Amino acid sequence: DNDSELLIDYESEDDLDASSEKTVDIDERSDDERGCILKPKIYYCSRTHSQLAQIAQELCKSVHEESTTMVTLGSRQTLCINESVRKLKSVGLMNEKCLDLQKESSKVKKSDHGYSKKKNSKCPFLRRDGVEKLADEVLYVTLDVLHLGTAVRACPYYACRKSVAAADIVLMPYQMFFNRATRNTCGLSLSECVVIVDEAHNLLETIESMYRFEI
Asked: Model confidence over 50-70: pLDDT tens digits?
């Protein structure tokens, strides 16, 4: 069960996502980089996605539900709805496959009659208009992002990241916030924010595991 794991593999995603911004036609820069007025935010960090889901459920029961926007961030392993990517299981392999699909948007293939034609192999869920629409909607349907993404045929992974700028509350695993490269890629500004760390007694162990190297 991936939700029960203490650590979720984001390290391999950092290096890949640095190049993904060159292939994804979606503006994922931070508020600072875009020159936007920063909106005060609450960042809620927990160990696992299952714990984040529980927090999201409780927040949805509060009296502030209708006036508060919220998004839960995660890896492609959690948010991808492309079956050709999901079946790979490994986060690293999923990242590579996702980026490959973005680069292979138009391949030339020779037909039986000698004519060349273009074969579209781009991810069908990575339509800019669809992702932007989903980014607006996920702020109000945090508990059903995967089903909504499937219904509108738009990528929840990139939509959730794009919705960070408009969210009042951003839920995420420890690794996304305490890894600088991942934090910057997701547009998580440290200005005008309140950071809440759930089960903070586990934080040192988590950070140690994130930056530990084996020889």
From this structure: 889 899 989 888 888 888 899
Decide: helix, strand or coil at residue 72.
strand
Name the residue ranges covered by the structural domains of the chain. Answer: 2-106+113-211
- The contacts found for 52-59 with CB under 8 angstroms, 24 or more apart, are 52/171, 52/172, 52/173, 53/3, 53/143, 55/171, 55/198, 56/142, 56/143, 56/171, 57/143, 59/169
pTM of the entire predicted model: 0.75
pLDDT digits (tens, 9 = 90+) for 149-208: 999 999 999 999 999 999 999 999 988 998 888 899 898 999 889 999 998 888 888 888
Number of DSSP helices (H) and strands (E) in the chain, helices first:
12, 6
Q: Which CATH number fits domain 2-106+113-211: 1.10.3470, 2.160.10, 1.25.40, 3.40.50?
A: 3.40.50
Q: How many CB atoms sit inside 10 A of residue 162's CB?
A: 23
